[in-house]
Amino acid sequence: MDSVRMMLTQYLRAAWRRRWMGVIVAWLVCGAGWVGVYLIPNQYDSTARLFVDADAILTPLLRGIAADSAPTTQLEILQRTLLSRPNLEKLISKTDLDLTLNGPSDRERLMTRLAAEVKVVPQTKNLFTISYRDKTPKLAHDVVQTLLTIFVESATGGNRADMENARRFLERQIQSYEQQLRGAEKRRADFRARYIEVLPNDNNPNVPALEGARGQVQLLEGKLQDALLSRDALKQEVEATPPMLVVETGPGPQQQLPQGVGPGTPFVKTKVQEAEDQLAMLRLRLTDVHPDIIAQKKLIEALKANPPEGPALKAAAAAAAASGAAANAANAANAANAAANSIKRSVPNQIYDQLKVKLIEADTMVISLQRQRDDAVRYRDRLEKVQREQPGLLAEYQNMDRDYSVLRKNYEELLGRLQSANIAQAADTQADKVKLQVIDPPEIPRLPSAPNRMLLITGVLLGGLGAGAGMTVLFGQLDRSFSTVDELRTLGLPVLGGISVLGLAPLRQRLMTVMRFGAAVAVLVGIYGGLVVHILRSAALI
Q: Which of 122, 170, 246, 462 is 20 to 30 A from residue 14's alpha carbon, by CA?
């Protein structure tokens, strides 16, 4: 620890002996540095802030209807390509920068410098700034204003130009596909008209014509067999049914009359007899297991179990009760006369007539089905002959139909895309889909933004003081003299002693020396303070 202290003391003594050299170096460095700081030209910043609204209302409304022009992506591309070479050339031509050019090499250097010094900084997703620094305030303002104009023109006009190019392309493609589609339709129609019997039906294109014809023949064969069976059954019923029926005007001698009805009383059918007649008519057309036959039998059984009293029977019963024995005697006397006077006659059988009409209808149906079956068989044979002679005809038509379907699908998709492009173009041109708003327009700067003279002159002061101190230390290291007796003894020579300075005169002299040294440093710091005050006044801060 003592050795370190002794070494520091030695360095300080060596530096103190050369203090004026350090003062001179500090003055020279500070003077030169401060002059250099004031010779640096002022730099002026011009800044503009731009807000981009990608229309958060109209864009979602048109999603899925109009072509999505992706305004956010386009603005990001514009932001990155704002400093492209064409835009920089346009910037140079629209400002006074071209007045400083003397040749192509100057233009290249200027474009490189502009690409490096112009700053486009995004602050948020929709807000970003454009700034430029130059020694001329007006030129800095003109550069930012021109870049702002170029950006707005590119954002509003670029998308419309791209949309117009896309729309023209779609129109050309639609015209081309329309011509191809018409040609395909004509070839398809001609081919179908030439081989219409062989090709599938438009209503059911998945089923070939030959398969449909075979199925039709089988269907008609089945219908014809059913019609023949029905006609034969009707013939048997007609043969078993008599065409005429024999009827009597009154009841015969063998006929049983209902109780209370005399021989001279007109015969009235009961409900049981009517049900039995209806059952007989049903048996002419149906079998015994038919539901109608079974239901009619159940009705007859129910009527027999609970026979209703009809008005005729009631009247007969009332007459018989009123007449008493006299009526019975008269009835017995007239029985022989009624049996002798009964007359038989033949009447047409209505059931037979109905069966004949149905038989005629069945014959007509059989003839019609036979004709349809024969036509279907001839059509099937013709299709089989054509298919045997031209086996690749159906495959050729399928290929032709497939090409036509692809062309039609592409044509309809292009039409839909064209309508989407028209809607998107109308949104861009009429509704201002992308809105650009300049929040802070560029202004001509009045105060310089660079250089930071306060920081520079402070650095020069610290550098000058450091340079002076360093110079004294450096020359102290190069000094080969001895400051103490101990340093002399390190040489190995015998040292008897040292003589110290006595009296007050050396002390006053040291004080004066310190005061002169302090005054030199204080004057240097005072000059620095004056420069600081001048800078603050220039910046209108005081």
A: 462
What residue segments make up the domains of the chain, in order of their start? 2-40+451-538, 44-175+416-440, 225-368
247 forms bridges with which residues in the sheet? 345
Using CB atoms within 10 A of its CB, is residue 52 exposed (0-12), middle (13-18) or buried (19+)?
buried
Residue 216 has pLDDT above 90, yes or no: no
How far is Cα 451 from Cα 47, in angstroms, rounded to an integer? 17
Of 386, 415, 266, the C-alpha closest to 338 is: 266
The CATH number that domain 44-175+416-440 falls under is 3.30.1890
pLDDT tens digits along 324-372: 433 344 444 444 444 444 455 667 778 888 888 888 888 899 999 999 9
Is 462's pLDDT higher than 90? yes
Radius of gyration of the chain (CA): 64
Long-range CB contacts for residues 475-479, cutoff 8 Å, separation at least 24: 475/14, 475/18, 475/21, 476/11, 476/14, 476/15, 476/17, 476/18, 477/14, 479/14, 479/17
Percent of all residues in the chain with a pLDDT value above 70, rounded to a whole number: 67
Instruction: Write down the mean pLDDT value for the chain.
Output: 74
Q: What is the DSSP string of 129-197?
A: EEEEEESSHHHHHHHHHHHHHHHHHHHHHHHHHHHHHHHHHHHHHHHHHHHHHHHHHHHHHHHHHHTTT
- The alpha carbon of residue 415 and the mean position of all alpha carbons in its chain are separated, in whole angstroms, by 18
